[in-house]
Amino acid sequence: MSYQHQYVDGTRIHFPLGKVVCIGRNYAEHAKELNNPVPTEPLLFIKPASSVVAIEGGFSIPEDRGVVHYEAEIAVLIGKPLSRNPSLEEARDAISGFAPALDLTLRDVQARLKEKGWPWEVAKAFDGACVLAPFVPGDAIEALDDIGIRLTINGDVRQDGNSRDMLNPVLPLLQAISQHFSLQPGDVVLTGTPVGVGPLNKGDALTLELVGHSSFDSGVI
């Protein structure tokens, strides 16, 4: 699978896509809607690069593995290495782009695995599980505590969140991730989803927005 990061102005980033680091339950209201406890520290998991598909032209979902949930998230593209104990300034300097993204979840599969106490990567890391839009440059967004993320499906707004409501804000989140594993150019961080997750169906028409910065129409094909 080949995926190229593309800025809205048409320029491209010339390094390969790396891992996708995700944070679970980073919005308290989302944790509550799934009857999950609110974590006291970042809940991290990883999607491989093979899970990433571009939003342009539409995307497909598994049709034989139960319910597929959408989770709209702010994606952060890493452009410089980050290892243990970076400062806030170093973390900010390492960001080369922002984009809206979808973290797709096989919710029925995940529930069965959690009931057994088993890892649930197969519910989160399958091919096509990360739908990624083109990035806007990192310096296009100044206030990291005021980034809006919105998902509209079939004309209805399903998620409308803002980074100000994150339990772990963007830069402290990058610092926390780097305590466990380094971030490299081409890595992407999905920063969590706000309240409003739900099922996707074939034929759904979507608009995914980084509010005030980028907007993309797509669909489940």
From TrEMBL:
Keyword Nucleotide-binding: no
Signal peptide: none
ATP-binding is among the record's keywords: no
Homology family: Belongs to the hydratase/decarboxylase family.
Domain Fumarylacetoacetase-like C-terminal: 19-212
Protein name: Fumarylacetoacetase-like C-terminal domain-containing protein
Lineage: superkingdom: Bacteria
Keywords annotated in UniProt: Metal-binding
Matching Pfam families: FAA_hydrolase
GO MF, one example: acetylpyruvate hydrolase activity
